[in-house]
Amino acid sequence: MAETRTRRGNIPAETSSLVGRQAELDEIAVLIGRSPLVTLTGVAGVGKTRLAVRTADRLQDSFADGVWVVELSAEQNGDLIGHDIAAVLGLREQSVRSQSEVLAEFLADRRLLMVLDTCDHLVDACAALLRRVLPEAPHVRVLATSRQPLGLPGERVLPIEPLEVPGAGDTGADAVRLFTERAHALVPGLTLDPVAVAQVCGLLDGIPLAIELAARRLRALSVQQIAERLDDRFGLLVGGSRTPLGRHQTLRTAVGWSHELCAAEERLLWARLSVFDGWFDAEDARAVCADGRLTGLPLLKLVDRSILIAEGSRYRMLDTIRDYGREWLRRLGEEDALIRRHRDHGRSP
Ligand SMILES: Nc1ncnc2c1ncn2[C@@H]1O[C@H](COP(=O)(O)OP(=O)(O)OP(=O)(O)O)[C@@H](O)[C@H]1O
Ligand SMILES: [Mg+2]
User: Fold this and answer.
1) 49, 180, 249: which to mutate for ligand 1, most atoms within 8 A of CB?
2) 100: Cβ–Cβ under 8 A, 6 or more apart, which residues?
3) Is there a smaller number of Cβ atoms within 10 Å at the N or the C end of the chain?
4) Which domains does the chain have, with CATH numbers?
5) pLDDT in tens, 133-160
6) What is the number of the ligand 1 atom nearest to the C-alpha of 20?
7) Which numbered ligand comes closest to the C-alpha of 258?
8) In ligand 1, which atom is closest to the CA atom of 50?
9) CA distance 144 to 240
């Protein structure tokens, strides 16, 4: 027989200020009202988890059976997701029935919000479980975070963009506010050069994780020095807070987690595309990147994985993602050849 504890949720306390994101929070709440499954996607460290946790906190009163966060980053085995959820919900079952069956029965008449955090590496297993459970649980809502959608019918996907980056001399942008708040938490009263702060935030594409890691370097460096050293962003942005698996300890491990989840031809394409420094289309990509090793170009797969940004028929990468690809291209020994191909393509009529 299943039993539960009497807790009404397990939302982790937020230990730092949340900057901006009002529009996203409102939109997520609306989507949750409309769909049983909402997935926040976006590049490494863009703030998906932060938004999901804040949403759960905001919506506590709307769910009589609580709001529950199930963090999956340390789970290696897709077959165990049901157990992970059951453990968080305090559900104990001693029977031979499958975990999804037990969960479906338990959730059938519950009114709760479940945050499935970090589904990236278990997308198919999460989808299979939710496909089984959600149709039988009309009052359950799932808010998933993942660098790619789960691919379930009825899923509402909300891509989370980086924070607004400043134009020249603009000190009101959210990215600048985040850098400034983290800087002052570290060194109260520190005077910051606004031009250099804006430059750092722009170079870091407005990615909150990268901005937080950069602000930590203020212990030893000035903002100008940080800006100057950002052409080696992966060398500079190390030493963040610990999360399970240490994914957010450095910018390299955060982006590397996406890289590990890519198939071989997606990694190769990511590396080769790093020679474009702005928008390109599928024809450009084919002309520069295709060869016997890479025949079909998985551009849409890279969009799905939050590696490429698509707008109409054009694509581009954030600088952080491009730099990672460039490092990989160098390691593959292909950098010179690809730079040549890109240059020759630019010259072609
Ligand atoms: N709007 C924000 N205001 C303040 N801090 C933020 C904001 N968004 C994100 N952060 C901080 O940036 C870091 C990365 O955010 P978060 O963990 O939510 O990213 P993520 O998109 O879930 O990354 P991953 O894809 O690796 O799971 C965290 O330390 C988080 O607190
Ligand atoms: Mg996350």
Assistant:
1) 49
2) 82, 129, 132, 133
3) C
4) 22-159 (3.40.50.300), 174-253 (no CATH), 262-347 (1.10.10)
5) 999 999 999 999 999 999 999 999 999 9
6) 1
7) 1
8) 18
9) 24
